[in-house]
Specification:
CATH class of the largest domain: Alpha Beta
Strand content: 15-25%
Structural class: alpha/beta
Distance between the termini: 42 Å
Radius of gyration: 25 Å
Largest sheet: 6 strands, mixed
Bound molecules: ligand MGD, molybdenum atom
CATH topology of the largest domain: Rossmann fold
Length: about 725
């Protein structure tokens, strides 16, 4: 007997249970991800939260140990803390709770938490995401809300690119490892099929990136090893060269854009020689690339990573402007794209309807933060902040409630986040695992994983809806989020409003039937027995902005692409005026640019204790890649433990020498569990790069995450190497 399941990194089958549980790919998936190999080893790992636990207050949050208690004691404590916090106003509860949680349409931690808190009086929410906040806020000004959705939720589909595109100019490359992941999961990973077809037909990629292997192995092309943070200069120079060669599409700029001519004036002195000096690319290579772009059907794509940097709005904006100068926006396989390779859903097909969703409740509290301003919220109550033309104030937070995210993985400057988490009266965390965030809570409630409950799984544009079937008993005393919230709501007097009288099993059936009513699907029981159902009406032939080119206006103020936005100009942000500008990378005494990209061996911090993630470690630490020349200059050999530091903190990592890194660039992926157990040696002895990243927004426009890059120095670590304790539960030992 096997059951069907799904994760953000793909659908699977499960057989066995407990320590002998086995996970195999969904049989219909042509290219399942190796990340499935993390699931079995994590299932009953010692880092699971077994029972509700309360912090024993002594040294402070994140330094104390915990005592296990009964569910009744823990839930009473949660209900009391919520009641006490609400006396200060409902906005004193921060329930933003950013994070990826798990796949599954019903047991989605944030949806459950938000509904629970909204029905109880409301909460301060978080806006946008860590992934592409700068794009989410800037793009509506440039291409309208519908245009933003069209770009971010899919763009031109891969089969169209495979059939029509001659050249992809990929700023940030097109990574294969990241494309396996899609929010909600993916039943069918067909990207590599499309890449192979495209390559066989002759598609070539110019991968403009600090890392050679940002170009998927199934693609062919050239690596232009750019200095990080200088893409805008290269984009300006490419536009300059298109003009110089008479290849700028002036008709397109005049007919379809506002500010096209102004952009040409802005790049008049931005020559390839100027950009070569800044970016480290050859002047001749920039000129040649501009000519290749004009010689055929060209797609310009900007990976999400480029906008997770200081002034991250600019490479996005300049990339769109460059595509407009080339004039192929709206043509099959040409124009602009954003996030190809970043996740599987970009270019990965479209469904003409939404997916089943647990109903939200209206949140009566208007207060919010841009999600990456969490430390500012907690450290600076009452202080004002700018965001997208508005001015707002941080409420005074008394209680933080986190379910389904790991801020001590995802946020920048973790030393500062520790100080921030010391401020509120109460921190409540729901987790299956003793993450660093759980260790910084007062109340930790153990929740089930997707293997321990029934759910529905699907990602946008995917081929199938998956029955996520319970494969094993809940671990120890772990419970479903839904039942936890129902019990707390009962203590607070609104259980019936939260549950609407349904059990979780009844909700699943209801969500499926309600959603599928017009779709001619099998009944719920047949779907469940089959384990999956094909989603009808899927298409994978979208051409981004084809309708716009055919005369349908965008929902911008002008109906055109606004390369100059009077709205943004009116906000008066000098660092983000109404048109794309180049900012020199900030000066730093630290010589190496550390690329903190997404890990190939896991999703973020999830299942870091699993087999695939552990196998990638070096001396038990997260691998850090650096160029052999930079290593030699520091006496570092392959396999050495290294210490990486800057003014914000320090970490230990395992060195891997690789000429896939441009000189001056090192790479350390996110997601190694934060381990502050030996502060005399390093802030984190395991290799979480967020002890080194600055906690600053992209700009006042979007206030997005800037964690993709840090400036650091690296040295060989010759002192004692403390053990990694990141996975040890901080429990009181009687
Ligand atoms: N330096 C740097 N930092 C970055 C980035 C970067 O590029 N550089 N990228 C950023 C990006 S794009 C993102 S999206 C974030 C990701 O940041 P997060 O989404 O916070 O990272 P995850 O590790 O996915 O955290 C999800 C947590 O939910 C828990 N979980 C799983 N299932 C359940 C459940 O059913 N219930 C509950 N309550 N919990 C569950 C998991 O155990 C895990 O701890 O990181 C950001 N941080
Ligand atoms: N395996 C795996 N896949 C994932 C995730 C994961 O955790 N694991 N996370 C998912 C999530 S939440 C997101 S948001 C997406 C993120 O998707 P992306 O943002 O596209 O992914 P990253 O790996 O962070 O960055 C891609 C590459 O950008 C390059 N880069 C960095 N800075 C610069 C620069 O200044 N200029 C140029 N030209 N290139 C630069 C880096 O070399 C890096 O390898 O990935 C998703 N996919
Ligand atoms: Mo993300």
């Amino acid at each position: 007997m096997s059951s069907t399941g799904s994760s953000h990194w793909g659908a699977f089958r499960v057989s066995g249970a407990g320590a002998t549980l086995e996970v195999t790919p969904r049989p219909g998936d042509p290219d399942p991800t190796p990340l499935l190999g993390n699931i079995a080893g994590a299932h009953r790992h010692g880092s699971r939260v077994a029972r509700p636990a309360l912090r024993r207050p002594r040294a402070g949050r994140g330094y104390d140990s915990f005592e296990e208690v009964s569910w009744d004691t823990a839930l009473d404590r949660v209900a009391e803390a919520l009641t006490r916090a609400r006396e200060h106003g409902d906005n004193a509860i921060f329930g933003g709770s950013y994070g990826w949680a798990s796949a599954g349409r019903f047991h989605h931690a944030q949806s459950q938490l938000h509904r629970f808190l909204a029905l109880g009086g409301g909460y301060t929410d978080a806006r946008d995401n860590y992934s592409f906040a700068a794009s989410n806020v800037a793009l509506p000004h440039l291409v309208g809300h519908r245009g933003t959705h069209a770009i971010i939720r899919g763009g031109t589909d891969w089969p169209v690119i495979a059939a029509h595109t001659d050249l992809v100019v990929a700023f940030g490359g097109i990574r294969a490892a990241t494309s396996y992941v899609s929010p909600g999961g993916r039943a069918t990973h067909d990207l590599r099929e499309h890449l192979r077809t495209a390559t066989a037909r002759g598609l070539r990629v110019a991968s403009v990136s600090p890392l050679r292997d940002d170009l998927a192995a199934d693609l062919a092309g050239d690596w232009l090893a750019i200095r990080p943070g200088t893409d805008v200069a290269v984009m300006f120079a490419l536009a300059h060269q298109l003009v110089a060669d008479g290849h700028a599409d002036l008709d397109f700029l005049d007919k379809y854009t506002v500010g096209g001519r102004r952009f040409l004036a802005d790049v008049a002195d931005r020559t390839p020689a100027w950009a070569a000096e800044i970016s480290g690319l050859d002047e001749a290579a920039i000129v040649a690339l501009a000519r290749r772009m004009a010689a055929g059907r060209t797609l310009i794509t900007v990976s999400w990573s480029l906008q997770r940097t200081r002034h991250g709005e600019q490479p996005l904006w300049a990339g769109l402007a460059l595509a407009a100068v080339l004039g192929q926006i709206g043509l099959p396989g040409g124009g602009f794209g954003h996030g190809y390779g970043s996740v599987g859903e970009v270019g990965g097909g479209k469904l003409p309807y939404g997916l089943p969703t647990f109903p939200r409740a209206r949140n009566p509290v208007p207060d919010f933060i841009p999600c990456a301003r969490i430390a500012d919220l907690l450290l600076h109550p009452g202080e004002e902040f700018d965001y997208d033309g508005g001015r707002y104030a941080y409420p005074d937070t008394k209680l933080v409630y986190w379910a389904g995210g790991n801020p001590f993985h995802h946020h920048q400057d973790l030393n500062r986040l520790r100080r921030a988490f010391a401020r509120p009266e109460t921190v409540i965390v729901h987790e299956p695992y003793w993450t660093a965030t759980a260790c910084h809570a007062d109340v930790v409630l153990p929740v089930t994983t997707t293997l321990e409950r029934d759910d529905l799984g699907a990602g946008r544009g995917d081929t199938h809806l998956i029955a996520m079937q319970r494969a094993d008993e809940p671990y120890a005393e772990a419970r479903d989020e839904y039942d936890i919230f129902a019990d707390v709501a009962q203590r607070l007097g609104y259980r019936a409003a939260f549950t609407e009288g349904r059990t979780s099993g009844e909700w699943l059936r209801h969500l499926y039937e309600d959603w599928g009513a017009d779709l001619d699907l099998p009944g719920f029981d047949d779907f469940w027995a089959a384990g999956e159902v094909e989603l009808p009406g899927r298409r994978a032939d979208t051409v981004l902005f084809a309708g716009f080119r055919d005369g349908r206006p965008l929902d911008t103020p002008s109906g055109k692409i606004e390369l100059y936005s009077a709205t943004v100009a009116g906000f008066g942000y000098d660092e983000c005026p109404g048109h794309p500008v180049f900012h020199e990378p900030e000066l730093s005494p630290y010589p190496i640019v550390l690329i903190c990209n997404q890990p190939a061996s896991r999703l973020h911090s999830q299942l870091d204790m699993g087999g695939v993630s552990q196998q990638a470690k070096i001396a038990g630490r997260e691998p850090l890649r650096l160029h052999p020349t930079d290593a030699a200059a520091r006496g570092i050999a392959d396999g050495d433990v290294v210490r990486v530091h800057n003014d914000l903190g320090s970490l230990l990592a395992g060195a891997r020498l690789s000429d896939a890194c441009a000189p001056g660039v090192a790479q350390l992926s996110t997601g190694a569990w934060f381990d502050p157990s030996a502060p005399e040696v390093a802030t984190c002895v395991h290799g979480n790069p967020n002890v080194l990243t600055r906690d600053v927004g992209t700009s006042r426009l979007a206030q997005g995450c800037t964690g993709q890059q840090a400036r650091v120095e690296i040295s060989r670590h010759d002192g004692p190497t403390p053990p990694v304790r990141a996975y040890d539960p901080p429990l009181e030992h009687q």
